[in-house]
Structures are given as C-alpha cells and as structure tokens.
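Contributing new records

If you add data, match the layout below exactly. Sequence lines come first and carry their own label; structure lines follow with theirs. Keep one chain per record. Anything else will be rejected by the validation script.
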Amino acid sequence: MKGLILSGGRGTRLRPITYISAKQLVPVANKPILFYGIEALAASGIREIGIVVGETHQEIRDAVGDGSRFGVSVTYIQQDAPLGLAHAVLVSEPFLGSDSFCMYLGDNLIREKLEPLVTRFRDEKPQSQILLARVPDPTQFGVAELRDGQVVRLIEKPKVPPSDLALVGVYMFDATIFQAVKAIKPSARGELEITDVNGQYLAWGELEVLTMGRGFAWLDTGTHESLLEAAQFIETIEKRQGLKVACPEEIAYRLGYIDATRLEALARPLSKSGYGEYLLRVLSEKLF
C-alpha cells in the first residue's frame, strides 16, 4: 500500500504567511505541518510516499529530500495547476499504478493513529474508505447528508449544510479510483472534487464510511485561526508528556527504518534546538 500526500495548493487563505513559504511548510509547534502527514503514514507501515507538488515544489523538495531521514522513499509528482484533489490523483497514476493507497491532505493534522484504519482497509479490501467527524462550521468542508443513519449524499462546502459531519482529510482507495475520477465532471469552480469521487463510489455501493467518535482530534490548518489552534494543541500535549508529537525521525528509529547511528547523525546538526536535544535524548534515555 502506498501513501499520497497532496501539497500542491497555493495557500491563499494563509496570506501573507504563504508569500514566503509553502503552506505545507508553515510550522505547527516545532515542525512543518507536512511532517505530521509523513509521520502518520510511516507509523502506519506505509513507506512508499508520493507528494503532489505545485508552484512551491522546490521548497518542499529541499525540506523533505528523498525521505530517507524519515525511513521512507519519497517520489515528487508535479501538478501544474491546482485543479482539484481528484485531479491530483489523476496525475499520480504513474506512481500509484494498481496499488491501493492512503491519501492525506498536506495541511491536515490528525492526532489519532492511522494504523488501525490502514490495517482495516488492507484486510477488508473495500474500494473506498472515508472518515467523518463532527465540526463546528461544516460550510468549509465536504459534508455528508444522512437518512435513517445512512449516508445518502456528499456535498462539497454547502451553504446550508445537511449535517455537521465533515469528510476528514484522509481517504483510502484501490485502483478503481481512476475509473471513478474519470466518471465525474469539474465542479462550478472548475475543479475535480474528491467529494464527487466519493459520491460516485456511494452511487456504486462501494463506499465504506467510518464515523469518528468523541475525542477524535483532526485539525485543518488552512486558516490563521486553525493554524494557531493546532500549534497550541500540540504544545499542550508535548508540555504535559515531555514527548514530541509526530516526530518522524523518532518514529523511523522506533520502527527500525533507521538505526541509532543515522538518528544521531540527523540530531547533531539540530542540537542547539529543543527538537535536536529531544532526538538525542531519545537515543540516550531510550524514551518510549
């Protein structure tokens, strides 16, 4: 199973911050938001990762490299224009091939482990799997309409939402995704919407829907307010526990993707920062 992180957007909602940085590289607490997605996939056992990039591709390449520092292999996929999430999947077909994959939005942060969801998808082999979570302002997301407790329709950013259940920025698909994308038409804003793709699966009777319960922590960092909220959320957890949240180098080390010598080599250049000090402490104290 492969991973696909979408990082091709222009970040206009985060202006003026994104005049100087790709939105996926804006820091949340002590690392770029993109690193949380890489860690989430790596911790789920997914080590082949494609990153869809746009105008800010060089910044992202410079920050992530080939992925070896995180124990993964990264392939960069150019999307010449932000024509929708489903369009990003289309341009990724040469990388994805016939493999199933987990798609992760590059400006999202999910605190819960993805591994149980990835394992379920691998074992049960549905064609499509989506997650729903309650949000206070569903007009900003793809939203599910329910009837008798069953999803009957998915709507992208509705002016009058039929529910407060939004599509979380993590999706899983098998190779039928390309057939589904080719079956939809661009939306009114000229984009191929992933919500419409999932609607196609719903029409086929091939959409698995999982509703996340209370305490599920999903943060979309697409606005100044949500970016600050995410940083405060991570800072609170790290201060209470004394452990880093979503530290990809640490995860790579714990899962055996990199060894102690490699981790130390990554940590030494960062030793004057709290992040580097933490990595060295992981080595010396065997933190778990």
